[in-house]
Records
---
Amino acid sequence: MRRASCGAGMKPGLPQNPKILVTRTDRIGDLVVSTPIFELIKKKHPKSHLAACVFSEHCELVSGNPFVDEVILYEKKDAQKNWIGQWRFAREIHAKKFDAVIHLHATNRMHIMSLFAEVPIRIGYNRRAPWALTQVFPYDKKEGLKHETNYLTDLVCASGFSSQPAEPVLPYVPVTQGNRLSVSNLLQHLGVEANEPIAVIHPSASDVSKMWPVENFSEFLKQYVSGKVRWIAVGDAKAAEQTAIISKLSGLLVLDLCGKLSLGMLAALFEKAKLVVSNDSGPAHIAAAVGAPTVSIFGRWQPGMNAERWKPNGKKAIVVTPQIESIPVAERAFTYVDRISVEQVLDAAKKVTP
């Protein structure tokens, strides 16, 4: 089994028209920031058959990507939740005769699966069953010195599957005409005029340490002045309670679409938005990827969790972080999301909107 270090510039022994599998079975935002890798690989290997293995619930984030030829769905909580299902999945991958697999996120399941699937070239990081890989690269993402997309770019370049791009490649999430129509019909049903400008907030997050206080969201809505907009809240079903509080405190009607949109419809909604304000979360990455003016709020500062590594990338995306430079690192709390002021977010919103 070969081992390589980053920067080795190894050139894989691939056929002229290789079949390449890229896996990213992780959170929404993690997948979105990985999408530039599809373009990088395809540009280096234009005649390749490039497949993406993702969680089934994330299918709409990559289905329709012009650089992805096939989407393979992974059912961690269903068909592949036990080792029997895992073995069957490995045999399905084996039958597809991939020449190489690149694991963008290290998991025992994916690494071992590719070994059982007998994929000749298996590339990934030195963590979680690295013995199942043929090319292993150091895992230094926890240092948080650069963006996740840049770490992944280094991986595919060092393994010979891409060249360093002259310009940064931004994340991409496809938006279908069907989802555009579904969102338009839904908004019309809720009384939103066809040409009425909308702005979206996402007040929830996967962890409370990422959540800007609802009082701040409500104050932001009251102070935001940029023409008349219809405010809409998105998130999972649990975010409906936060939305109700924000609406009450702000005195503004906030349309509650929490738990009512697929990821594809969410992307279509963001595409229509004049502004998106979101906590550190997957939806913020989707908004940035479809080109929406996006303000994301980051309270975590630790290396590996910080905005330097995880901020949404987009032409109209901006991140707001707490001002904690005066606090010694040894004395810092886990998060300072509550120290991000309404004024900071208002200033950021002005920068990304006309």
Note: The chain has a mean pLDDT of 93.
---
Amino acid sequence: MFADPCRDRRGQEHDHHLPCPGRRDLDVHEEELTEAGLADISGPLGLYVHVPFCSGKCGYCDFTSFPGQGHAVFRYLEALKAEARLVNPGRDPETLYVGGGTPSELSAGEIAQLFAALHVSFPAAKFIETTFEVNPESVNEEKLGVLRLAGVTRLSLGLQALDDDVLKAVGRRHTARDSLRAFAAARKAGGWSISLDIICGLPGQSRDGFLEGLARVLELGPDHLSIYGLDLHDGTPLARSGYAADEDLGRDMLEAAMDRVEAAGLAHYEISNFARPGHESRHNLNYWKGGEYIGLGCAAASYLDGVRSRNVADLETYFDCLRQGKRPLAESERLSGVEKSGEAAMLGLRLVRGFEPSPDVARQFDSKIRGLIERSLLRREQGKLQLTREGIFLANQVFMEFVPPFEESNI
């Protein structure tokens, strides 16, 4: 089954509280990252801002988040401003995505402060899309009003399921009724696109129960829908409990869901994502098309001029680095030619319509591509490479074919 399409783009990994990394700990020096941003680069630029606060960890969550740390919000907002001053992309971002964590855990006043800080940091930016993640239990009319005034154009509402027993089993802090209330409030506020997230393969979730919940979700009339197969990672509460999802059942759920969602008028445009025409996530499309992006906040990732970097995930380390006037980098690397080609293939194949391979991709991965076509996992369609239906469900296996061996990564 497929997993979150953006998790590797956010760099959501945990690290322990260590001193702010010195330059010798990084593959690419801080000065080179700044110089890379000053290059004359064309194409869209995305801005991702990570808000790591939440009310509690869900059973499947391994994103960087800090329950019960609300007292640190003010320090974090100040740190975001300090980090933004150290980043010089050389041009204004066109899309903004505020994720977490649970950004809607912030108070209405704190949300206003966050957007004020971003306006100060990027005064000339004219975002064509601004997404803000919200959870049903922590969004209300007051916060929605602040988000509207802040220029948010797209809400991402994390339902995950509409079955109270399933929600309780994975540690969600809302009920199905809360979800319906939150969606109604968001629709009433009006003027934006609403995306909903659901997961299949959760504990206690049957095929019929999942599809019944999906039918209720579709009745709401969302503009965008993300459907993820449960992806368990070591260290999460569900993984420690010994729970193992039934992959065959999960695939059956997803296959049935894909047909039902498309029949409801939402086009399948990316492995996990469906949208009404014009409501595709522009920010995420920039990722999947190999575009550049800046990440601010704990564990946020950036990609500029061939240099990929990730921030430290520990909150105090993040603060320490910025107090010292240093970018809070945990790691960075300049991608080799074959690595760039491999990433272009992996990301481009996430799109249902596929991608047109560059001469480098075609040359460097010719035998891999032919092998995947012979196994009916890829097909060629009007000059583009696309995942087949089977390839969609075995996407991780397909993508591994485009990861270059270590000895080739410096080519």
Note: The longest strand covers residues 193-200.
---
Amino acid sequence: MGYARTTTTSSGRASYATGFRAPTINQLFFPFGFGNPNLKPEKSKSLDVGADQHLFDDRLTLSVGYFWNRFQNLILGVASSACPPPFGFCAQNIGQAKSQGWEAGFTVAILKSLDVKGQYTYTLTRDLSTAARLPRWPVHQASVGVSYQPIDPVRLNLDYRYVGTRFNDAANTQKQGSFGVVNLSGTYDVVKRVQVFGRVENLFNQQYEEVLFFGTPIRSVYGGVKITY
């Protein structure tokens, strides 16, 4: 007769913070009408609470959290009739705004050499002066990643990222479609301080736009050597 014993641990977290962010040089003075020299500094208040549950001797971790943010003079790049031609896109302040939502995630060690992780975020946003959703802020976002270490110096990573529909403009008239993109990366530790790395972004050559009318690169391959001292 045999039996297996497992341990579980739980932990909680909570934080409250205030923030101040001055506009960047690009947000103030970028040419072609994108910059806005009249921008005011952004101020914020943030609340975050959550819990983590570790199961099966830490081989599985489940996480859940709630977040709330309140902004004054939120700085965003938006498409608006108030932006100068020819592009009609610039940095602007949104006087009073908020975002709130929840997120859930997991990490599981399927094998000693194989980990899988995932996360989902649900976000509601509002411009408090118009009741419109904040531009370029999706309600739904999700990601899944697989990490595999076939031998000690080699690690391979496959990641999928999903971004739901969102609006490109402050008036919520320009709707952007959702997209999903897959990236592949790997590293090889040649010796203690030398690592060879490579990655393929947009593995399946997906056509999508992070910002409306601004295309993203096609499948791209990168590689190099990292030396640390």
Note: The helical segments are 25-29.
